[in-house]
């Protein structure tokens, strides 16, 4: 590990320690009733060409730069954006129109954009604070084991035994599906041992992992805290010597791809960054522990304002790269931050670790999808951020519908 981290964040139950200062706060997941996104009708569409380039198309959005001046979208506009395309393994696709039932009021954020200096270096800002996870004890453990790689070059996160959440631009440029997405594959990280690679039978740890358990659940420090605590050389390979064996990927074909119409505009308009997310359904179920979805809280309800995500940055060949940082600003649909990241990490699942109601356990949930670098014009001043698309109540309901195939299990988020 060649980089040095200059500050430390501990998440211990009931307390948040940030740069030596303590605040007693109760950061919890709060289950609440969410609007229902219900399938209304499905139509067959012509087969796509699969000829687009896999790159971010940042054209249309309304975040911190214009949200206060723009009226909220109407119900019909929301339903149109939340309608979705499904592309199947054989190249055919459908359009499903949806209806929204229940309250559709999305939380309005108190935007607090400050006159921050313009950053001129894209994606990695100043000192590179990323961590390459090298040791198989961590690569194969939750939460790092939930990160996956797409054959189109992006990252993603496991959100069910058969589903991966990623960025829409990793498979679709807003008008057509990208090259290679017709035979899209997802790579799950595994370790190739120097020896036979067989696990010892009867091991308690192996049994826990096979059952989807977290062998370090309940420990005083989470895996992220151990990275942040400066134990990198001993436990993460230190960048000097690789861990036993070497990492490789177990590739699985994608059966279906779901993309919101807010992104897949085709010839009817530009894609909207607010809808830069997609769900991939795997052809075969995996046996790894996945991370559940959660509704993105406001910055004030995030411990220390910190977010976390792991992905496969292109400048660190096939290494799993973890990072964390404070959120700088927020809009209804986007998180603006300076988490160091390079191309290849887009599509990573941004997560938090909050306390479960009426329990002593802390739980991680995906609250956003990392979408990449973005220039923003705020009151005539150009600022650049790395941005993530938030999981709002409506988007939670939509993604939940994709995962379960119906809205029966999507009443609360």
From TrEMBL:
Range of residues in the leader sequence: 1-20
Top-rank taxon: Eukaryota
Skewed-composition ranges (Basic and acidic residues): 208-228
Domain Peptidase S1: 140-199
Any single biological process term in GO: proteolysis
Keywords on record: Disulfide bond, Glycoprotein, Hydrolase, Protease, Secreted, Serine protease homolog, Signal
Natural source organism: Heterocephalus glaber
Record localization: Secreted
Record-linked Gene3D superfamilies: Trypsin-like serine proteases (2.40.10.10)
Biased composition (Basic residues): 190-207
Official protein name in the record: Inactive serine protease 35
InterPro entries, A to Z: Glutamyl_endopeptidase, Peptidase_S1_PA, Peptidase_S1_PA_chymotrypsin, Trypsin_dom, TRYPSIN_HIS
GO cellular component: extracellular region
PROSITE patterns xref list: TRYPSIN_HIS (PS00134)
Xref: Pfam families: Trypsin (PF00089)
Protein family per UniProt: Belongs to the peptidase S1 family.
Record bears the keyword Disulfide bond: yes
Region of interest (Disordered), ranges: 190-246
Disulfide bond listed as a keyword: yes
Entry-linked PANTHER family: INACTIVE SERINE PROTEASE 35 (PTHR15462:SF17), SERINE PROTEASE (PTHR15462)
GO molecular function annotation: serine-type endopeptidase activity
